[in-house]
Amino acid sequence: MIAQQSKFIKFLLTIIAVLVTLAFLVPTLWMISSSLRPQSETFSNASDISIWTFLPQTWTVEHYSSALTGDFARALVNSLFVAAVSVVLGLGVATLAAFAISAMQVRGAGFVFAVIVISFLVPFEAIAVPLSSSFRDLGLHNTYVGLILPGLGHGLAIFYLRQFFDSLPRELSEAARMDGASWGKILTQVYLPLSRSSLVGAGIILFMFQWQAYLWPLLVATRSDMLVGPIAIARMFGEYSTDYGSIFAGSVLLALVPAALLFFFQRQFTQSLATSGMKE
Questions:
Q1: Cβ atoms of 142 and 220 closer than 8 Å
Q2: Of the four, 29, 150, 219, 268, which is 20 to 30 A from 22 by CA?
Q3: C-alpha–C-alpha distance, residues 64 and 57, integer Å
Q4: Where do the H-state alpha helices sit in 102-243?
């Protein structure tokens, strides 16, 4: 009897999970469908829900061709460049900071870590405007440096890696120090080989911070050749007319990149979440 109840509960939870998933997928399916239909059909089946709401009657890739050959293509490249550089440099900054706080136990490490925790608890929007004014005074407006710099010292990525480094046995670094290894060798030959999944998790945090950024690029990048993806999509909304097909196509392209990233690194990412604060 208990076994039957357990099976029924599992079945019921599975049905609920499927229904919730479908509810979240409905807007996404409609967006993808609308990006593949002519502009005249975008809202023709929106009021009457039917199969044609989620399946184009006339198929076209015109919106994707327009997006990939217009200003949005340059914005997409800018987003990829900014996010990729931020991941590479940001991982270096986060790794060194987390290693110094956790393994090296430098003086004042606890205070520094507290400041780092507070830094990612404060909404970035609260400091974006005065920070952009400082960047303007430094001549960093409309530059890649201006777009990339705020994303390098990401407090959450440092916190994430520090928690993992703390989970490693202290004896590893102590034994290496007794063998005469420098801190640089301990980091590169002991800690980093054990931290691959955690580095992937921190890298995804850094990537998503830059990839979905809107307010900061809006403040520091005003030239058309310096726009990033989200800003380029926002500029597609016209005063008198709007090409919703191109907007949907651009949104699909913007969503595909992080989706592909999570698909290729899903094992490492889920492992990094599962082993956060535990020995890997």
A1: yes
A2: 268
A3: 17
A4: 109-121, 125-137, 144-148, 155-167, 170-178, 183-186, 196-211, 215-220, 229-234
